[in-house]
Write a structure and sequence with these properties.
The protein is mostly helical and 143 residues long. Helix content is 57%, strand content 6%.
Length: 143
């Protein structure tokens, strides 16, 4: 299973917004520069995140983007679903009728466990948790 660029970049961008929670809005160019994402692509991601209620845009000379909800209330599973769609490893985990072997297939059971594990991790973590992880990583490199 490989995550799309949309999901990887979208997560990085919204984590950056969470790191600046409570401060002034971040402009797209600043996020794009720090995350090495094109501004044009980031505009598309922010539009998707805004329409899903995760971020808000602030107009004006000091405008930019901010989180629409507190970072501690936003589960990573919600963002993942917005950017990537549902966690799905194979077609048969969503539609048992797609394969005549589904009812007694050990591999299908494995794929369902993999999906549940991924969903469990994403549901157990919030943007605030990711901010803590980012701080821990940045302090590791400071002497």
């Amino acid at each position: 299973m490989k995550l799309s660029t949309r999901t990887r970049y979208g997560m990085r961008a919204i984590i950056e917004l969470a790191q600046h929670e409570g401060k002034r809005p971040l402009q797209l160019k600043a996020i794009a520069d720090r995350q090495d994402i094109s501004v044009k692509y980031l505009e598309q991601l922010m539009s998707l995140l805004r329409s899903s209620g995760f971020v808000r845009s602030v107009r004006g000379s000091k405008g930019g983007y901010i989180l629409a909800r507190p970072a501690g209330e936003v589960k990573l599973s919600e963002i993942f679903r917005c950017l990537e769609g549902p966690v799905s490893t194979t077609e048969c985990t969503e539609d048992e009728d797609c394969c005549k072997r589904s009812a007694d297939c050990a591999a299908r059971e494995l794929w369902m466990q993999v999906e549940a594990a991924i969903q469990g991790v994403l549901t157990s973590m919030t943007l605030a948790d990711m901010v803590k992880k980012a701080k821990a990583h940045s302090s590791e490199y400071q002497i």
